[in-house]
Amino acid sequence: MENKLKVGIGNDAFWPTVDGVCTVAKYYADIINRELGEAVIITPENPNKKDYMFPYEIYRYKSLFTFGEGYPVGWPFKEQFAKDVINYNFDILHSHCPVATSYFFRRVNRMKRIPTVLTYHTKFEYDIDTRVKSLAIRQKAYTMIGKDIKCADEVWVTSRGTADSLRIMGYEGDFVVMPNGCDLPKISATDEQKAIIHRKHNLPDGVPILIFAGRLMWYKNIRLIFDAVRILKSKNKDFRLLMLGIGPEEKQMKKYCAKIGIDDKIIFTGMINDRRELQLYYAASDLLVFPSLFDTNGLVVREAAASKTPSLLVKDSCAAEGIIDCETGFICEESAHSIAQSIERLIQNNDLMKRVGEKAQNDIYISWEESIHNAYDRYQVVIDKFNSKPKEPYIW
Questions:
Q1: pTM here?
Q2: Is the Cβ–Cβ distance between 342 and 142 less than 8 Å?
Q3: 287-290 and 6-10 as β-strands: parallel, antiparallel, unpaired?
Q4: pLDDT for the residue numbered 2
């Protein structure tokens, strides 16, 4: 594309807060600034920020406080914040969260219409239904998020299955599927490289290694993994499960593993921030076990594929979208018994896992460069559509 665009990349959190959507926003800004045009991150203040580490601008507006693992609560209501964004003269705004960020962009558009894209990454009904007991308040939350979604000129999802969540929020419009990419390169790890992880965690030789990667939250179906491990242990199957990541329910999970007697089979590694080391974890593992129905794209599935590690996924989940059973991954039912049965079958057929891992690397892997180039091309389509239509009063 010849036109160099100036893009406002908005999210409700940014580094040093680390999660899947923060990582997406970072790679959009990294690649656009390095290869395509200019991007500015728009995000709430964080008392632990280290913005000097980034070679591009980060505009931070007021936050009230932080909670959990450093998540700020943005306060985008001051008129000056909207004027600041307008003064950047962005060609397009791209929100990665339909809460504070999208509401902020609505306020901007009340003052000056700028084409706006929203990527809907998260099934917000899980968080709302878990944390909000009042049905009336839940409905208000759905309505608020629904309005933020509707105000975008174009809505993107990372998988087609995410549309179900959009409908729950009251959005009935069209959407574009724009998959996320993977920053890990394709590799064929050597035995010496895999041995680094084995030595770090004193893993026995010849024992199958399973892995889970992601935030440690019960709603990612992690209890099913633990219950499957209990079934396998009762059958005297030997293996180790590496739990990569951190989360607010990690302590509960460790207690649960001890309670059901599987803590000798499971290793909680904590957060692995070094991406090269993370790739070695994938490479050293025989199978990624990822039964989440919550995740809308399953980025970890592509990360594992980069190292020729196949994934075990639940039928009809977003993470399993585009996966062909026993060709580019493995599909099971949403039950501990089905997960255990699948793992038992696969750890006895290492050749099948290797063959499927190689095909996954060839067929389902997509780099961030390819993903964001596709998104950047789509920006121009959104801008052209925006400019071709008369500007109606902004009613939201």
A1: 0.84
A2: no
A3: unpaired
A4: 58
Beta bridge pairs of residue 241: 210, 266
Q: Within 13 A of 221's CA, how many CA atoms are on the CB side? A: 21
For 360, list phi and psi in degrees, rounded to 5: -60, -40
pLDDT at residue 1 in the model: 45
From 288, 351, 343, select the one nearest 320 (Cα to Cα).
288
Residue with tokens 């009762």: 234
DSSP secondary structure, 10-42, as one string:
E-S--TTS-SHHHHHHHHHHHHIIIIISEEEEE
Distances (CA, A) of 134 to 128, 139, 236, 249: 10, 9, 46, 23
DSSP-derived pairing of the beta strands 58-61 and 63-67: unpaired
As a three-state string, the secondary structure of 129-142 is HHHCCCHHHHHHHH
Indicate if the alpha-carbon torsion angle 31, 33, 36, 39 is positive or negative. Answer: positive
CA distance 58 to 43: 8
Quote the CA–CA distance of 317 and 297 in Å, as a whole number. 9
Judged by DSSP in three states, 278 sits in helix
Query: CA torsion 379→385→386→391, rounded to 10°?
Result: -170
Contact call for residues 125 and 101 (beta carbons, < 8 A): no
Q: Is 164 helix (H, G, I), strand (E, B) or coil?
A: helix
Close Cβ partners of 139 (under 8 Å, ≥ 6 residues apart): none
Q: What's the pLDDT score for residue 391?
A: 64
Rounded CA-CA distance 14/50 in Å is 10
Q: How many CA atoms lie within 13 A of 162 on its CB side?
A: 23
| Separation in Å, CA 314 to CA 50, 120, 358 | 38, 21, 20
Nearest of 51, 101, 59, 64 to residue 84 by alpha carbon: 59
Alpha-carbon distance 167 to 52, whole Å?
Answer: 40
pLDDT of amino acid 297? 75
Average pLDDT, consecutive stretches of 10 residues, N- to C-terminus, the chain (396 residues): 86 90 94 97 96 97 86 94 98 96 96 96 76 80 87 93 86 93 94 96 95 93 98 97 94 98 97 93 98 85 96 95 96 98 96 97 95 97 92 56
What local confidence, expressed as pLDDT, does residue 393 receive?
Answer: 58
Closest by CA position to 219, among listed 242, 248, 196: 248
